[in-house]
Design a protein that fits this description.
Elements lengths: L2 H30 L5 H27 L2 H22 L4 H17 L5
Helix pairs in contact: 1-2, 1-4, 2-3, 3-4
Length: 114
Amino acid sequence: MDKKTVFIGWNYLMLAVAALNIFLVVLKVIKGSTSDIGGLLFFAGLLAVVPAVLTIIMAKAGIRGEYSTCRKIAFFVLAINITDFVVNGSSALISLIASAVYFYLVLSLDKYKY
């Protein structure tokens, strides 16, 4: 298999994981909205959804073959995942590895390498 095929498959995997992440965050926000800190939980949930939304935008651009856009967004997603790994430790390791692999693939496929 070539890198382009792997990249397309990785995009679909990233879409599925990001959609699942958004679904789980929404469930947690709905469950916690009945508590005393419901408003605070809502804003924390919004912050948790930002990387997933960026991942969806990035993966959709990857499926269309817009490597330059993917590279730019993947850099920010990787930076967010590195920060998440530093703060939360091993619980963020899988998302860090997934975004690092994605960043490598998009760099190898981008015709404008920097």
